[in-house]
Amino acid sequence: MNRDHILETRGDFACFSRPELAVERYSYPCPTPSAARGVFEAIYFKPQFYWQITRIEILSPPSYIALRRNEVKDKISEAVVKKWMKGQQPEPLYADADKSMTGTDQKGRTQRQTMALRSPHFRIHAQIVPRKGSESEQTAFDNQFVRRASQGKCFHQPSFGCREFVAFFRLIKDVTQEPPACRYSQDLGFMLYDVFDLSVNNHETFVRDWKQVKPSVSVFAAAIHEGVLEVPPITSDAVLKSTLSAEAL
Questions:
Q1: Cα distance between residue 29 and residue 116, in whole Å
Q2: Which pLDDT score, from 0 to 100, does residue 147 have?
């Protein structure tokens, strides 16, 4: 059986955007499985396995705060990045561009409101699932994660949805000594599960040819009961996956 790993996570803010409210972001009351997976991958990741989130517990009742931020409309192109790598001067993106800079009436930034979570506090359960051919390394993967997480090591600082919303973590070794989840229940409807097919080694494909890595959006019927969101395995029939072809995506 796969070993259960548990992290207590907290931060100042969090935003796990509902896909149906993309322009004015509105956060789910708890992390999506893909956002929770990102926290574990920030601590320990190898192409030979993937993280399977099994349970998300809400330790503090959801509290929302409205944030308004200036966001740049455009994004830098691949061609500009390659020129920069060759030593050529890149073209900047002006957050406060006007007609004298862009030649048009189009402004370089826009204001968007975000309904974010304030003081989020969660307990996330996950398991390491080895890919085919790496099953014999299961114990080594588990032990290395425990060593890194117990020492507070990570490849990059985990975040809650947006990179600027920093997440702090603590490895839990005995969950029976921890406080219970808060008494909060809500039917979330269809919740975003992930934007990639975890059964496919996307990292290996990315190294070979990054253009071949295609998104594969999946959703599941999510319901929080007494502060607990049970997450089905990615291979479960309860997870509805995109039926679009790779070319369409």
A1: 9
A2: 96
